[in-house]
Amino acid sequence: MKIIDQTPLLDANGKLSLVNRIQGMLKYGFSWPANLEAQEKVIAQLNKGIEKNHTLFRNQRLGASEIVVPLILIGSSGIFALEATPLKGFYRARGDEWGTVSNGKFQPASINILSRTARLAKILQVFFERQGLKLSVEPVLLAADPGMHIESVRPAVRVVMSDAIDRFAASLVAGRPVYNPTEISELVERLQRPRSSRQEDQAPSVDDALAVRDERPFMESEPSRMQSILNSPRSDALIEKGGAQTFQQEPSELDFALEEETSPTVLVRNPYTPEEEETPQPKAAAPKPRRFFGMLSWQVAVLVFVFICWCAALAAVSVFWLIPTIQAQP
User: pLDDT higher for 114 or 314?
Assistant: First the structure.
């Protein structure tokens, strides 16, 4: 299995330094390192059972948007949007409901990872549809920790627990092929180098769409600050803002900055109006925030505050241990 890792802040060995770990927690949420560890566990298990004809993207950004999908698996068996969770405990997945189970009572979770995984799959499907490829993406939730138990009752997404990841990988290899190697290569290329496509009145099939290429190169505008889709209310708000409400509309109304947009957006509804084409209104570029060692000013301020608190605590402990020694001296 070919693995394409787009995770930010990793060194050449794929590890997080202490500084990058703190920077990533400030930027993507305090659960970011735990999510990366969960991804590594899941990738290791999948890599044992899937040898070839599959490509796994890790933390891949879609076009010029700020949407990052944690794991995307493309192979002969299909296209899958994978979410690896490091959670532990007893959970229940019923339809699109997600929560914990304690003493037989169901408590909805603050972050519904079932709905989020389903939305990520829908976003990825629309991303390919914007390039003229009509296909389906299957959402899959993977439990990385053996201490997590999920009671599934017709869940909205496919749920795979830690001890069943190997069987899940084996089912992909033994399943009926959906795409041939040429089509797989085309899908991988479209994910890495998206192209805008002028769709005809009737959308082409997958085979026809894969055989026809738009020769116009994709011009990716400079992205704004990358927003990771991980376990944080902030990332959920990003999907909710551009995804959940907009998905009630037709897929053609979603935009991933694949055409002539001047600035990257998450999901933009951009209906055509002749007046806007005749009198375009230039938009002033927003000033870039000033950065220090790759961090924003507020992130540096937080680090300074934590360092001061640590020094104060160290001084207090030192005084606490020195006072009895001084008093004991004659």
Answer: 114
Q: Tokens 């992130």 sit at which residue?
A: 299
Question: How far, CA to CA in Å, does 322 sit from each of 310, 315, 330?
Answer: 18, 10, 15
Instruction: Give the bridge partners for 142, in sequence order.
Output: 84, 160
Task: Give the separation between CA 16 and CA 263, rounded to whole angstroms.
Answer: 30
pTM above 0.90, yes or no: no
pLDDT value at residue 163 = 93
| Domain spans in the chain, listed from the N-terminal domain onward | 2-199+223-269, 293-328
Output 45 or 52, whichever has higher pLDDT. Answer: 45
Number of neighbouring beta carbons within 10 Å of residue 132: 21
Cα separation, 6 vs 11, whole angstroms = 12
CA distance 274 to 85: 47
The candidate with the shortest Cα–Cα distance to 187, out of 121, 135, 250, 256, is 135
Question: What pLDDT is recorded for position 286?
Answer: 55
> From the CA atom positions of the chain, what is the Rg in Å?
23
The DSSP bridge pattern shows strands 158-160 and 291-292 to be unpaired
Q: What pLDDT digit, counting tens, does each position of 233-252 carry?
A: 444 444 444 433 333 334 44
